[in-house]
Amino acid sequence: MVLKERMDGLLGAAVERGDVPGVVAVVVDRKGVLYEGAFGKRNLTTGAPMTPDTVCWIASMTKAITGACTMQLVEQGKLDLDAPAEQWVPMLKEAQVLEGWDDEGKPKLRPPTRPITLRQLLTHTAGFSYEFWNADILRYQEVMGMPNIASGKIAALKTPLLFDPGERWEYGISIDFAGLAVEAVSGKKLSAYMQDHLLSPLGMNDTAFKIRSDMRARLATIHARGEDGALTPIEFELPQDPEFDLGGGGLYGTAGDYARFVRMVLNRGELDGVRVLDAETVDLMCQNAIGDLRVTPMKTVMPQFSNDAEFFPGLPKGWGVTWQVNLEPAPTGRSAGSLQWAGIANSYFWIDPVRGIGGVYMTQILPFADTKSLPLFEAFETEVYRALG
Question: Has 41 been annotated as catalytic?
Answer without folding.
Answer: no
